[in-house]
Design brief:
The chain is mainly α. It is built from 9 helices and no strands. The protein is elongated, with a radius of gyration of 18 Å.
């Protein structure tokens, strides 16, 4: 079992290599889709790492969910992937919280690495 920080570090390495490989292509829409999927996957890994029902409940409460709702969601029969995409984790394990743990979106990496294309600055008339 990997810690979240280790997963994020490995993910950064792969993201940088992938974005470097395709930096000259126009892939903004694909990167947005991929970023959404990666965030869901990280939420799934966090949910799965909590394992026990009581730990899930306590962690949801720590993230700001009211006790009754935390109890209900921690005992949900939905699968981990469905929970990761549910409003409960999307609103509690936010992009900002993931960034604090070291996550960097592929779109941000792409914007850092990709040179500004001159043909987009000076359109032909």
């Amino acid at each position: 079992m990997h810690r979240l920080e280790e997963r994020i570090q490995k993910l950064k390495e792969v993201q940088r290599g992938w974005v470097n490989n395709f930096r000259m292509a126009s892939i903004l829409a694909k990167l947005q889709d991929l970023d959404g999927w990666l965030r869901n996957r990280l939420r799934y890994c966090i949910w799965h790492h909590w394992k026990k029902l009581e730990r899930k409940r306590k962690n949801l409460i720590r993230l700001g969910v009211e006790q009754g709702q935390a109890y209900a969601w921690s005992r949900s029969r939905m699968g981990g992937w469905a929970i990761a995409q549910s409003p409960i984790l999307v609103t509690t394990i936010t992009l900002e919280r993931l960034r604090k743990r070291g996550y960097e979106s592929m779109l941000d990496i792409y914007k850092q690495i990709t040179p500004v294309r001159r043909d987009s600055l000076f359109p032909l008339t």
